[in-house]
Amino acid sequence: MRLRVATDADLSRLLFLTHGSCARVGLSRGQTIQVATAVSELGHNIMKYAGSGFIQVRALADPVGVEIIADDTGPGIENCDDALRDHFSTGGTLGLGLPGVRRMMDSFEIDSRPGVGTRVAARKYL
Q: Within a 13 Å sphere around the CA of 46, how many CA atoms are in the beta-carbon half?
């Protein structure tokens, strides 16, 4: 499923569907919480920095797990290395979101270009 994220209601619907995807592939409660937290963080980043974007959550068969892909056409990130450091923030936050997503998930990739947007792909395996 790929859903537009622009409001808290959009994100709530996506989180509900994320829990279902995690259950279908057999992720544990703890793993499901990690995936849902990652989706929430990425969704809030999209709303705060880009205004809107899309998040796709899909089940993986081999290896079994869940993949999250978050895309936006916002301002992009000047320096991804900085953005992935704890407590670095350009938005007046704690700066723990992206580094936290990277730690919670089993794989994490980010591609961001200033003036073009950001794409994050993260996976959690069974």
A: 27
